[in-house]
Structure prediction request, 254 residues.
Amino acid sequence: MTEREARPLRPDMFRDPDCSDRAQPFRVGGKWTAMVLRCLEDGRPRRFSELRVPLHWITPKVLTETLRAMERDGFLLRVVHEENPPRVEYTLTALGRSLLGPLDTTCAWARAHVPEVTEARAAYEGG
Amino acid sequence: MTEREARPLRPDMFRDPDCSDRAQPFRVGGKWTAMVLRCLEDGRPRRFSELRVPLHWITPKVLTETLRAMERDGFLLRVVHEENPPRVEYTLTALGRSLLGPLDTTCAWARAHVPEVTEARAAYEGG
DNA sequence: CTGTATCCCGGCGGATACTG
DNA sequence: CAGTATCCGCCGGGATACAG
Prediction:
């Protein structure tokens, strides 16, 4: 066996279904998760209809699904105030705030490198 | 206007379709992108069939789509050696390697906090 | 105001078979 | 070996209407 044939990839690199690579690190949450995080990062509790405004008037069904998923995962708290009319407020938990670090890191990458990606795509189309 | 009503969310927070938040920072690439990055991070050129092994024998169609998308975005280089039988090798570009930082950051988050998420989900089911 | 209830569409991801 | 060619099922995301 010669030197240059050695070192195949380990077949079990991603065997563990819970390993952090398979956790699809670049696919945390749904389409709207990151934007909801941004809406809540200042710590101020926000209401359902308040969130819809910057989120392009996302439909209620989709916003509900997004918020429920984040609540279920422990990223935010849903507080119902028993009033009339009803008032519900959403706030990030400590776990939810812990996502802001990775989010910033990836946003910083995007700001720095998205132009290169755009260039690469143009070049690829061209030839 | 009282103090406690102030500071609504800016309606145009995510207006720019290319803004780094809307870039879905937690949704970079497809299901297999991160794993391909891991397979190539050691700098060693890898062949098509070589990649399939750790990737759970991903179907050729899906692997091709993943690799083509990454090539198109400038993340990797596809080199065809004119031989018989054919040999094709994939290598990360500098741009592709620049993704490893954010990837590590998010993987570190996952290792540190996924147990909390699991707990939160269990608690949500239970109550 | 804060959501449900329906219906719907596109597209990612996959299974299988075939080719240069 | 390194892919194409088809076909297909699922589900995320959305539009619209309605309810407590």
